[in-house]
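Writing this down once: the sequence line spells out the residues, with the fold written below as integer tokens. This is how one looks:
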Amino acid sequence: MTKTKLGVLFLLTMGAFAQETRLAPPLSITARRPTQSPYWRFSLGILAAGNAIDTASSYGYGEGNSLLRSSDGRFEARGLALKAGLVGAVAATEYVILRRIHSARLTHLFTWLNTDMGATVGAVGVHNYLVRNRGGAPE
């Protein structure tokens, strides 16, 4: 009787393992790395484009952010280098995190954050152009 119970338990266990292997193909076939997500990559483009618009609208004009302004109070090469470095650091940090932590939720979060930051900074750049065209000074 004990051999029969052990045999049935063995068969059930083997059946469960066999079923699990059939349902789960190798990771390399089904899963994409989060850094290969086309949405995440596109969101980095939005982030870069938004910052480029803001940079172009501010270059040579007065800058309200004390970290980005030069000694004469304008946004010039120093601010440009710092801003480009920050955008590059954000992108590189996200890339490293996503390569180490394979999480679709984290990829989704970074995608939305990049899109939101890029759109917000781009809107500030558009605002700068609109204010300048009306005769006022950009903020």
